[in-house]
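To close the chapter, one final illustration. This time we ask the reader to focus less on the individual chains and more on the assembly as a whole: which components sit near each other, and how the overall shape emerges from the parts.
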Amino acid sequence: MLKFEDRSVELRLGETVLEALERAGIDAPSSCRSGNCQTCLHRAVEGVPPPESQVGLTEGQKALGFFLPCVCLPASPLTITRPDDVGARRDAVIRAIEPLAPDVIRLRVDADDFAYRPGQFLELVADGDLRRHYSLASHPEDDPFLEMHIRLYENGRMSRRLGEFKPGDRLHVAGPSGTCFYEGVHEEQRLLLIGAGTGLAPLYGVLRDALKRGHLGPIRLYHGARSRDGLYLDEELKALSRTRAHVDYRPCLLDPNAPAGGDVAATALHAEQNVKDSAIFLCGGENLVKRLKRDFFMRGASMKDIRSDAFTPQG
Amino acid sequence: MSNLYERLGGENAVNAAVELFYRKVLADGRIARFFDGVDMDQQIAKQKSFLTMAFGGPNNYTGADMRNAHKRLVAKGLNDSHVDAVIENLNYTLRDLGVPEKEVKEVAAIANSVRDDVLNR
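The assembled structure is written out below.
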C-alpha cells in the first residue's frame, strides 16, 4: 500500500514507487532512474523504505526516512512526502525570551509532540506569512522546550516582532528539517564542529547529543564572532571543556589585521590540516560553509562526513 | 567474459572513484570555474550517476538530462577542450585505482560518446 501525502496511490506488482507516482499523475522529478543521481528523492513519513532504496544517502537522511523512489519496490506500506515537506504547523507557546548578546536572543517555546534531532532546524511562524528557519540548540531528552538562538537585525521584520513577544504568547512551528545532526558518526571518531554567530546553536545541540550518546573521540568546537559579546556561550563552553577532557573549545574573535582573513574559517583551516577521518559539522553563513566544505573535501574529508547548514540572513 | 561494469568492480568501484574524480576535477584550473557555486552534495550524486554510466553500469541514459544540465555551461564557454580535460581526469582516476589500461580506454570511450549531448550539439 502506497500513500502520497493523504492520497492513496495504486502500486502494481513489480512497479517502483516512481513509476506508481508518475502513473497517478503526481509531479515527481527524475533523471537517472537507477538510484544514483538522487533527483527523485522523497521521504517516507510512515513505514520503512527498503535498504536498497537508500543506498548512497547520508546516515542522517536514512534516519529520517529519505529514499529514492526510482529503485524502491516497497515490501510494506509506505506514506511518503516530497523531501522539503515540513508537515502541518503546530501550536507553540513562548516559555522564555531573553538576550544572550546585544544582537542575539534565546527563545524557548513549548510545543507538544515535536520530535527532532538536536541540530535540525524548524520553521517559526509568528503571523501568517512571517516565518523564518531557526536551528535547535535544545535536546529532546533533556529539555521540555525547543531552544533557538536568534540573531536580531535592525529593521528586520521578525526581529521587530520578536521584540514584542513575551512569555505566554502563542505562535506556530513546523518541521523539523535538516540533516546536520549526530548520526553516522563512530563513537571514537574525531568530531570537528565549526560555526559562526548563531551557527553555534545547532553545533551546541550536536555537542550535547554527542556527549549524551557517550562519544569518546576528541571533540573540537570553533565558534567565531565579530566581538567578544558575540561569543555568547563562552563561559559555559569554557566550563564544559574544563570538566570534559576530550572537549576542546576554541573561541575565535574576528581579527581584521590577520594575514589570512582572521575569521573562524581561516583559523580553522590553518589549524586543521588533517581532516581525513574527522566527522565535520559546519554551520553559519553561506560563504563560511561553502569555503570550509570545499577546502576540507579537497584535503581528503569524505562528503558523507561533512554535514552542514548554511544560514541565509532574512531579518 | 563479464561486462565492463563487473570487471571494474561494480558499485564499489564507482564509490571508490567518485570522490577522487571530483577532487581532480575541482583542482583542474582548466575546468574548475564551471563548478563554482554548485551544491557539492548534489554534484557528488550527479558524478556518481555519470561514472556508473561511463563504467557500463545500470543506467537509463537518454541524453536529455545531460543536455539540460550543461546548457548553462555551454553558454559560459564550455567546449571540446573542457570535455577532453574531464575525460583526462577520469583516466587519471582509474589509473590511480589500478584499473588496467584496456578498461581505462573502454570507460573513456563511453564518456566520449556523450560529448555531443554535453556540448548541446
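The mean pLDDT of chain A is 94. Residues 10 and 20 of chain A are 7 Å apart (CA to CA). With these observations in hand, you are ready for the problems at the end of the chapter.
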